[in-house]
């Protein structure tokens, strides 16, 4: 049992930071949008720019 616990412990510790990283990525755009007063058109353009960057 101790061996299994030791193996599961590190795996979970490694998985959690990895799972947290993607969550942090969406936060800056989401936090920036409310902070800056943008019109729906500007938000669409910003989204398009992000999509283009991802496609490239």
Structure description:
With 56 residues, this protein is mostly helical. It has one domain. The protein is 86% helix and 0% strand. The model has no long low-confidence stretch (mean pLDDT 60).
Q: What share of the residues does DSSP label as strand, in percent?
A: under 5%
Number of strands: 0
Structural class: mainly alpha
| Average pLDDT figure | 60
Choose one word for the global shape. elongated
| Secondary-structure element pattern, one letter each | HHH
Distance between the termini: 48 Å
What about the largest sheet?
none
Low-confidence runs of at least 5 consecutive residues? none
Figure out the total of helices. Answer: 3
Number of domains: 1
Rg for CA atoms: 19 Å
Helix content: over 70%
Secondary structure blueprint with pairings:
Layout: H1 2-24, H2 27-35, H3 40-55
How would you concisely characterize the structure shown here?
The chain has 56 residues and is mainly α. It has one domain (2-55).
Which characteristics define this entry?
single chain, 56 residues, mainly alpha, 86% helix
